[in-house]
Design goal:
The protein is mainly beta. It has one domain. The chain is built from 2 helices and 5 strands, in the order E-E-E-H-E-E-H. It has a 3-stranded antiparallel β-sheet with strand order 1-2-3. It has a two-stranded antiparallel ribbon with strand order 4-5. The longest helix has 5 residues. The radius of gyration is 12 Å and the shape is globular.
């Protein structure tokens, strides 16, 4: 699987869709609340990722693609 490119394909009130390589993922704001305060521009702006990680430098947020593929293996713990 080629994951050398990634882009945000859409945003809704519940989250956004991320295309990485040949897969599409939904990133829910409930699971990733740091994106709630981000602007649309900040969510859409992401550089070429590493093969397994997507990073939003403007937000200092990164997501391992494994967490989107198998979220049960990556328990989330956010502090507000």
């Amino acid at each position: 699987m080629n994951r050398s490119t990634a882009e945000v394909s859409g945003i809704s009130s519940l989250g956004f869709w991320l295309l990485a390589g040949d897969r599409e993922y939904f990133v829910p704001f409930d699971d990733y609340p740091d994106f709630l305060q981000a602007t649309v521009e900040q969510i859409y702006r992401l550089p070429t990722p590493s093969p397994t990680q997507i990073y939003w430098p403007d937000l200092d947020i990164d997501i391992d693609l494994g967490a989107l593929e198998q979220p049960q293996n990556y328990p989330l713990a956010f502090k507000r």
